[in-house]
Design goal:
Blueprint: E1 2-4, E2 8-10, E3 17-21, E4 26-28, E5 35-38, E6 41-43, E7 50-57, E8 59-60, E9 63-64, E10 68-75, E11 86-89, E12 98-99, E13 106-108, E14 118-121, E15 124-125, E16 136-141, E17 143-144, E18 147-148, E19 152-159, E20 163-165, E21 170-173, E22 180-182, E23 184-187, E24 195-201, E25 206-209, E26 216-218, E27 227-239, E28 242-245, E29 249-256
Parallel strand pairs: 2-10, 11-19, 21-29
Antiparallel strand pairs: 1-3, 3-6, 4-5, 4-7, 7-10, 8-9, 12-15, 13-14, 13-16, 16-19, 17-18, 20-23, 22-26, 24-25, 24-27, 27-28, 27-29
């Protein structure tokens, strides 16, 4: 008989139906003796990875013919790409690459991973700068032996420019207790590695100060000398080993001298 069926399948496909053209068809297992079915079709059930062999014969005018072989190969579903996303500051000219672990991996802009959303093939993909106005998810999959892995999301985290506040201007007398300038209202919320860069300047000085765990600046040293000081602060937000910088915030700190007798 003439036999028909698929040559290759993936383990996640449905078990195939084999068909035959002939008379009085009998289907046999790979051992050539175990009868499986009679008729022009055989619904298979085994989809284990590997080659699957079947046979069929026909009987014409009472005379049985030779066994005719047919087989199909079932290939394994590929392992999923092992991916690594990235983070960047909004507006940055330095765009990090997204990563996977094999050069055969395919990158897409859509979770359906259709041909219309195909981007590139390889271990890395670097998005175009103009597309990165906010965090965006890309997708990777792998094809081996005609079989596809699951589609894996890969996130490019775009960090919007941080914002914060250091409060309003302050006027103090030289003999008053020192005030502390407190950075607050952080967006995004400050991480453990985030910090404030402080600078205090006047007509005669300009000095940078280290931040502390409270993100506060103690102006006890400034209070020793009357004058008008500009306090400038910059919020350095850290996430995923990336530092993103805010616009500088400034305030005026005025220390008034004692009144003369």
């Amino acid at each position: 008989p003439q036999l028909f069926g698929p040559a290759t399948l993936c383990e996640y496909n449905a078990a195939p139906m084999l068909s035959a053209i002939g008379e009085n068809i009998v289907w046999y297992a790979s051992d050539k003796t175990t009868e499986l079915a009679n008729g022009e079709s055989l619904q298979t059930t085994d989809m284990g990875v590997g080659r699957h062999q079947y046979y069929a014969s026909q009987t014409v005018d009472g005379c049985p013919g030779p066994l005719t072989p047919i087989s199909f190969m079932v290939s394994a579903k590929p392992t999923n790409p092992i991916v690594k996303g990235a983070s960047m500051c909004a507006g940055s000219a330095e765009i990090p690459a997204l990563e996977s672990n094999l050069p055969i991996d395919l990158w897409y802009s859509n979770e359906n991973a259709l041909e219309s959303s195909f981007l590139t093939i390889g271990k890395t993909y670097t998005p175009e700068a103009e597309t990165l106005t906010e965090s965006i998810t890309y997708y990777a999959k792998r094809i081996q032996n005609g079989c596809e892995s699951s589609v894996v999301p890969v996130v490019m985290n775009v960090i919007t420019q941080p914002t914060f506040s250091i409060g309003d201007d302050i006027t103090m007398c030289v003999y008053d207790s020192p005030q502390t300038i407190q950075a607050k209202e952080f967006t995004p919320e400050a991480t453990e590695s985030s910090y404030i860069g402080w600078t205090v300047s006047s007509a005669s000085i300009s000095k940078a100060y280290l931040d502390n765990e409270q993100h506060a600046l103690d102006l006890a040293e400034v209070l020793k000398k009357p004058g008008k000081y500009t306090v400038s602060a910059n919020y350095q937000y850290r996430y995923d080993n990336v530092y993103c910088s805010s616009q500088p915030e400034t305030m005026t700190y005025t220390v008034v001298d004692r009144a003369r007798k």
